[in-house]
Amino acid sequence: MCPFIKVDEGNSGDINLHYEDYGEGKPVILIHGYPLSSRAWEKQIPALLDAGYRVITYDRRGFGNSSQPWSGYDPDTFTEDLHRLVTKLNLHDFVLVGHSMAGEELARYIGKYGTEDVSKVVFISAVTPFLRKTDDNPEGLDESLFEEIKNAVIEDRPAFMTQFCTDFYNMDALEGKRVSKHAYQASWNTAIEASPKGSIDCVDTWGTDFREDLKRVDVPTLVIHGDQDRIVPFKNSGKRMPDFVKNSKLVVIKDGPHGIAWTHNEEVNRELLNFLG
Questions:
Q1: For position 45, which CATH number holds?
Q2: 18 included as an active-site residue
């Protein structure tokens, strides 16, 4: 039976997160991004286990095998879910690894709880530090872009996910070279099974300001980003991370799309394992 942890209550029952816990050694928590599940780490889990780490993955609320409540799709609630898992498993001296939207949990977790139990942090294709353009954040993206995405999800979620997954892997450039149509289809299947409400609400979080949270990161930090990311453009996100996280290393994956954990898994795994030491 798959393990679950109760993180909240809904109208008619518990809100549970599905998680998996493998191996022994130093704990590494892998947090997937939108709109996938913990299966997104399929190419990282064996490499980490072979290197002697304990690997913990979970499906964020609304995704994968976790509960799909009507609410709670915001950075603070996602972070509380992570904290409850950490507490349940009594984890200390652990590494946090987040892809895409999961960069929110990494930043907000440290912003709220500090780094007493966190030894290292890895941001992969993450939405941090602040994607929305404002007067004091001219490097961000226009507000209209987020509204267009949200409206597209509302109007026709299956069609939106078709294009999203295409851009997730840069299928026009990488299909048959670094990603198969079958891997694309598997991602679409996962995406379409996610909470429709969560798929809409999550878009609102992508423009959250995490700059102050990131200033509290005082442990070794690795930032990995593809230079051809069409979902979270490198110049608006990963490129800016060293400005806010002093003790960070930036690795740019040449020709890398958003889904580099799959398409460029050898490069990502090598950088990840070298960083973990």
A1: 3.40.50.1820
A2: no
Q: Find tokens 């979970």 and name the residue.
A: 58
Kindly report, residue by residue over 41-59, the tens digit of the pLDDT.
999 999 999 999 999 999 9
Q: Number of structural domains, the chain?
A: 1
Catalytic residue among 18, 99, 225, 258: 258
* 59 counts as catalytic: no
Among 81, 201, 213, 229, the active-site one is 229
What is the identity of the amino acid at 146? F
Instruction: Indicate whether 160 pLDDT > 70.
Output: yes
Of 100, 187, 195, 199, which one is the catalytic site residue? 100
100 assigned to active site: yes
**Cβ-contact 57, 41 below 8 angstroms:** yes
How far is the C-alpha of 191 from the C-alpha of 196, rounded, in Å? 10
What pLDDT digit, counting tens, does each position of 166-213 carry?
A: 999 999 999 999 999 999 999 999 999 999 999 999 999 999 999 999
Structural domain that includes position 17:
4-276
| Residue keyed to tokens 């110049």 | 235
